[in-house]
Fold this sequence. Notes:
Blueprint: H1 6-19, E1 27-30, H2 34-49, E2 56-59, H3 62-70, E3 86-89, E4 93-94, E5 100-101, H4 108-116, E6 121-126, E7 140-144, H5 149-158, E8 162-165, E9 181-186, H6 193-201, E10 206-209, E11 211-212, E12 218-223, E13 226-231, E14 242-245
Helix pairs in contact: 1-2
Amino acid sequence: MRVVGPEDKYKRLAAEMAVERVSDGMVVGLGHGSTAAYAVLRMAVLLRDGSLKDVLGVPCSRRVEEEARRLAIPLATLDARPSLDLVIDGADEIDPGLDCIKGKGGALLREKIVAQASMRRIIVADASKCSARLGEKASLPVEVLPFALVPERRFLESLGGKIKLRPGPDGRPFVTAQGNFILDWSQPPLDNPRELARKLESRAGIMAHGLFLDIVDEVIVAGPQGLRLLRRAERSSPSQGNHALA
Length: 246
């Protein structure tokens, strides 16, 4: 049995605060990961007791889809509903500008697609995920085409840092929903994540990376000091947009 620690309580509080932004008739992206799972569970409770009505979910991964079906959350696809009202997702690391590293759960490509299809993007996290610069706490997942594994690994090595091919539960390489591999790239904190993103996106063999830049609208962080709401639209410096919530 997994030991439940204080971070789980904070994850749940942040996720439940985010679900308060969901209203009747919305199409909602269902994020992948332990924190977003609390949001899926809360939505299911509200749908079951009638507090929410006519809400559709668009899962970011097959595992989330299976859980949502188990909880009787009505689902849609991007083919049927290509424009979402909002997405609630977690993050592995968040900087003061609300840029994130995501992808520890292996669903980074679908998570980014769903985020870009959403009109409002909300990240939920416990306070341990916040850092001054991206790369201080989390490695950067890079999803690569198996055919291009060796050249793309060499390309990343040329940029510095340490690279590890992510293993699956059976010891073989982890395979994403798109049939790709993931290279977890540990490096010093990033001075220029946007320039790095441009370099990664120029490579034909790289299908996705875990830098979520200029995407997130709001971050809800929970920790020992309570809940904080960070809004991109209200910030002009790292200290702005940081609001304590009761």
